[in-house]
Amino acid sequence: MKTLTIDIRRAEPRDAEAIAETHEAAWLGAYSGIIPHRALLSMVNRRGSQWWANAIRNATSILVVDVGGEVVGYATLGRSRARQLAQEGEIYELYLRPEYQGIGLGSRLFKEARRRLAQHGLKGLVVWALEDNSNALSFYAGSGGKDIAEGVEVFENKALKKVGFIWD
């Protein structure tokens, strides 16, 4: 019997290619049909393994979900960009490969990201999700987030509403 390990850890340079592949699979799965196709492909293609390697080297806070030695998810986090909100921390991105969604790994990654933000002295949390991404809205509402803010992201002249969730 083989034991499969699940670890949530800080990203390392050797993870860059796997994060890029996870980013592509997760974004195409989450946003196809929501973000205009050309804009979505452009966003995915900008973030290849070299982009992620630079982000890791530049000390960007990136966590990965490692299942049996394979990176299947990631989160990026740091200080909130929404200065008008009282929450000091923000999870900028939290994504899993589609085949690993719905089995609790996202919740574990979310919990660890919150713990790391608090460990850095950042009180409260904000997360933004596109209003048309029903899976993300359900996930954050189910994780106790309060829907308190709205904004707009524009992709190829298409304005999409985004929702801000907070945790104190």
* Average pLDDT rating: 96
Low-confidence stretches: none
Strands across the major sheet, in which order? 1-2-3-4-5-7-6
Number of domains: 1
User: What is the count of DSSP helices, taking H or I runs of 4+ residues?
Assistant: 5
Which series of helices and strands comes N to C? EHHHEEEHEHEE
Shape: globular
The CATH superfamily is identified as: Gcn5-related N-acetyltransferase (GNAT)
Rg computed from alpha carbons, rounded to a whole number of angstroms: 16 Å
Proportion of beta-strand residues: 25-35%
| Helix share, percent | 25-40%
Specify the CATH class.
Alpha Beta
Strands, total number: 7
Helix/strand/pairing category: alpha+beta
CATH topology: Aminopeptidase
What characterizes the major β-sheet? 7 strands, mixed
- By CATH, the architecture is named 3-Layer(aba) Sandwich
How far the N terminus sits from the C terminus, by CA atoms, comes to 43 Å
Features:
7 strands; 7-stranded mixed beta sheet; 5 helices; globular; single chain; Aminopeptidase; alpha+beta; 168 residues
Describe this structure as you would to a colleague:
The chain is of the alpha+beta class. The protein has a single domain, classed as 3-Layer(aba) Sandwich (Aminopeptidase). Helix content is 35%, strand content 33%. The protein is built from five helices and seven strands; from the N terminus they run E-H-H-H-E-E-E-H-E-H-E-E. It has helices at residues 16-31, 37-46, 49-57, 105-119, 134-142; strands at 6-10, 61-67, 70-79, 89-96, 125-130, 146-155, 158-167. The protein has a seven-stranded mixed β-sheet with strand order 1-2-3-4-5-7-6, with helices on both faces. Strand 6 and strand 7 form a beta hairpin. Helix 1 (16-31) packs antiparallel against helix 2 (37-46) and helix 1 crosses helix 3 (49-57). The longest helix has 16 residues, at 16-31. It is globular. The model has no long low-confidence stretch (mean pLDDT 96).
